[in-house]
Amino acid sequence: MPLEEKALIARLRRQAAGSSPAVVEGIGDDCAVLRPRRGCELLVTTDCTLENVHFRRAWSSPEEIGHRSLVRGLSDIAAMGGEARAAFLSLALPARLQQRWVDGFLRGLLKLAREHGVVLAGGDIAQSPGGVLADIVVVGEAPAGKAVRRSGARPGDRVYVTGELGLGAAAVVARHAGRNVPIPVPQPRLRAGRALRNIASAMIDVSDGLSTDLAHICEESGVGAVIAAGRVPAPAGIDFALHGGDDYELLFTARGKVPARVAGVRVSEIGRVVRARGLWVEARGRKLPLHPGGWEHFAR
Amino acid sequence: MPLEEKALIARLRRQAAGSSPAVVEGIGDDCAVLRPRRGCELLVTTDCTLENVHFRRAWSSPEEIGHRSLVRGLSDIAAMGGEARAAFLSLALPARLQQRWVDGFLRGLLKLAREHGVVLAGGDIAQSPGGVLADIVVVGEAPAGKAVRRSGARPGDRVYVTGELGLGAAAVVARHAGRNVPIPVPQPRLRAGRALRNIASAMIDVSDGLSTDLAHICEESGVGAVIAAGRVPAPAGIDFALHGGDDYELLFTARGKVPARVAGVRVSEIGRVVRARGLWVEARGRKLPLHPGGWEHFAR
What does pTM read for this prediction? Predict the structure, then answer.
């Protein structure tokens, strides 16, 4: 049994008591009060994490699940080149869930929040008729006009990605096949995102899979792209890298020179932006259409 | 069957296309981009609305349920004396739900948003293993230092409430008893809240019931209060007014003179703030302790 709503909120209020000049008032009033930095725009993102859709309690610790729930929001702030400031958590919990699981979930979430200077400033608690549901809002900032959109890619730009792709999707498939491999714990690329703010022409985080997320950049920018299969950092194989998801790496386009490492993270050039609308992948001298597959590909 | 996530987001993006100088970028990127007004602080509130906890599909139309889901957030902005700017909707839908219901829900929500100049700027869609779940975030603004907190009540202040209390709770109880009465559709008191910004010493919205919400003001302010039962605007009886919920009226304390109507809404003086911690109700010459009951009182 989880704690009663009032006791749980009181505990959260104690645990969340961090301080930030950006958060004037956190948990405990009708609204949180945030103070935006002068000359900054505000970034807001919401991500809903559902049991048996985004995670399984049997496959990850509660700490890891709390961490991952917040990574999804922080990664969206990273993809705009912003700084994360405050988080809000709406948690729907089944009546039979153990409070120990909730404590672990919050521990994982709050540890990651502290690492990035993010204050848990509010939220809501309800009883879930199904599994655990965590809806997370992250509020961040970027200097006015400097947030990196999906819509800025232009023909001739090169396509880049941070880190490695496909390890998470490969682990999920191995788990479904009964092999007891650990599900990787992603880190939000906030520092890399900020370092890319004046370099990237368009940026997105790889949450649904490279092929789907690159399609989003191309649609919003009105362009196409060609990916060189051999250049994609794909330790688990090219299929997982192209269509897997939950990597939380940054996928971006740029015109000028891009360093090989950004904020300590490796950057790979994997393709180019073209005028013709559509996605293609080049492998062994052939150029084939690349259909946005994404995570759903594996789910069905 | 509701629409696929992608189709639903595309439809929402078209329907939500309103414009506001506060929203630079709405649905369609990793984050929404908001532009805070100079000299303003930001207000953020989240409210989770669950089927069979906060509403029943058999008792209200989908339009009313969409309206109510947003009222909860707007009412929190009103209770700080703020102006609502943007809303974010995370919606978890059962696989078997009809798209017609979803359309009605969104119609009710977006109509209320437009009436208050609020832009639906983002959200998330997922499949729910249980009933419908709508988590709503509302972002608002208030001039720096002017947001009305729960913590400003002082001994000697008078206690006031807008409108009438208890009609919603009375209707829910009647429905449980099998009587086919309409569930009232509350309106967020945004204009009244702004008008009270320089009048109220502390303010909250009545969402959990007068006794519970007044207890919140008293706890945060370190004071107590005495309510005069005969002065509470209670058309459905004093019990429903004291312990019902979902009224979304404004409960506030003030030192100076308060007009009898604020922004077209009736204001009733219902009690006084005292030094002794605790809540009391005076009725027929007797003073009895008032225990925070709230909506849960009726649920059990």
Answer: 0.91
